[in-house]
Amino acid sequence: METTQSQANNQLAIKDHLITIFLGGDVMTGRGIDQILPDPSDPRIHEFFVSDARKYVRLAERANGSIATPVDFSYIWGDALEEWERFKPDVKLINLETSITVSNDYGRGKGINYRMNPENIGCLTAAKIDCCALANNHVLDWGESGLVETIATLKTAQIKIAGAGVNSQSAEIPAIMKVKGKGRVIVFSFGVTTSGIPVSWAAGKEEPGINLLPDLSEATVRHIQKQVKKVKQPGDVVIASIHWGGNWGYEIPTQQIEFAHQIIDHAGVDLIHGHSSHHVKAIEIYGEHLILYGCGDLLDDYEGIGGYEAFRDDLSLMYFASLDGSTSKLVNLQMIPTQIKCLRVQRASTQDILWLREVLNREGKRFGTRVQWDNNKILTLEQLG
User: How far apart are CA 210 and CA 137, in angstroms?
Assistant: First the structure.
């Protein structure tokens, strides 16, 4: 009886300190999505095959039906709004892959240029996003002036940022969010060139840019360790949000795995929020810490574009990670399967949930993880053995 009571007390103590974090993959509110919002940017873009952003709206409509534009700011989040209300996460973190600017200084020769009108910032506040990771390969699509305006727009909207700044010092500063009665969530955002980030985008001593890692070496681990040590206090949860790897394919390089393990073991990182892949990738629990190697695209304008159908980039997951605030270790991970349809987030069908489950279980074998599906259409992560 004493053991049972002790276990019950421990469970209550963990519940009191439980911090739930929503982790979203790439959110690309520029281009086609910007065009359906109340204040679209000039639709002219400078891609190799497309010169008008409205074409992406037409492709989506051709695939799944008409969209009555303009939509309100909450439209693009669709069913995600109800899921956020159901789970009530303490912090919502996304990787924002677009420049928020009226700048016309597009990246010459880059091929893809994502831009959202600052007047459409309401789409992020409608979702009550707490923090945007910015160290990615699209935030500078419209030049340094576009990045500076992006940062200013997010700060005015009282959305925390990490991973970009007006110089290298500010680009390294993490976002710190206080969770009342529970502690703090600290987000560091890092970019890696393997995701397509140009080396020239790295922030300089006096130049705007992103927090670009030179490599995934032990020296880089030590540098991150120093950064974390400056801010981490007992009870803090530290997240490393990393934009790394290519857009397609399930392979996870050994170097990524080793780096993830090292920054957990030696740098004080508690959770890794990996992104860049346009589809979900394997999940690992390492030493009771969560590693998401690739979260997929929570929201983009790729509907109707062919070429990578086998990866089902229209399907994604809303990740809800609950951590013990006293130890910063993972208690559970629940995921809501979603589909991008009509340029908004919608719940995935039963057939698509089963497809996602199969993929996660297949790819998770390497890491000893699998997912189970319940009647509420929630996928829950389990560790084998």
Answer: 9
More confident: 285 or 307: 285
How confident is the model over 308-329, as a mean pLDDT?
Answer: 96
CB 294, CB 246: distance < 8 Å: no
Token couple for 311: 């990866």
Could you give the domains of the chain?
Answer: 2-383 (3.60.21.10)
Query: How far is 162 from 46, CA to CA, in rounded Å?
Result: 28
Q: 46-74: per-residue pLDDT in tens? A: 998 899 999 999 999 999 999 999 999 99
User: Given the DSSP bridges, would you call strands 115-116 and 237-243 parallel, antiparallel or unpaired?
Assistant: unpaired
Q: What is the pTM assigned to this prediction?
A: 0.95
Q: Report the distance separating Cα 229 and Cα 222, nearest Å.
A: 10
Average pLDDT rounded to a whole number, residues 112-123: 96
Report the distance separating Cα 22 and Cα 89, nearest Å. 6
Cα-flanking dihedrals φ and ψ of residue 121, to 5°?
-60, -20
